[in-house]
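Can anyone check this?
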Amino acid sequence: MEEAEQHPAVPDGYDRLWTPHRMAYIDGENKPSDDNAGPGCPFCAAPAQTDEQALVVHRGESCYAVLNLYPYNPGHLLICPYRHVPDLTTMTAVERAEMTELSAAAMRTLQQVKACDGFNLGMNAGAVAGAGVAGHVHQHVVPRWAGDSNFLPIVGRARALPELLGQTRAQLASGWVDGPR
């Protein structure tokens, strides 16, 4: 951590938690230039890589679970169909069913492996709705803990993530829970 006094301005007594890695997300680095399928889409490219390279946690028949590169919390997963489609209305019934089943399996896994207290689940359909990759639908499964981020995101516009993505991927992949308990 850096001391506030090291920077020009009026010292305010706060330490700074710098998160320069978040600038890649803010600046849109590696964001697809269009909504087309192919190697420019991270959700089309991931299945062709190893699980470790792509941070894939689990592969199903028509969908897979992958860690979010820009997570809100440790264990933030995305459930994606292999097929490049923009929203639920263009998915097959089989894809929608497996997305739901994998979302439930992700929740069970995160409860078991990370002992989380709750979840945010959601999908942003279309760029206007906030989808970072609007051309390829994906469901967010975000684990939550009581007091998990407090006011850090609000006041500091930063998130503290206590472990590396590779460690999280290995934990969740080895502890993946299929089916109901």
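Reply from J.R.: I decoded it. The radius of gyration is 18 Å.
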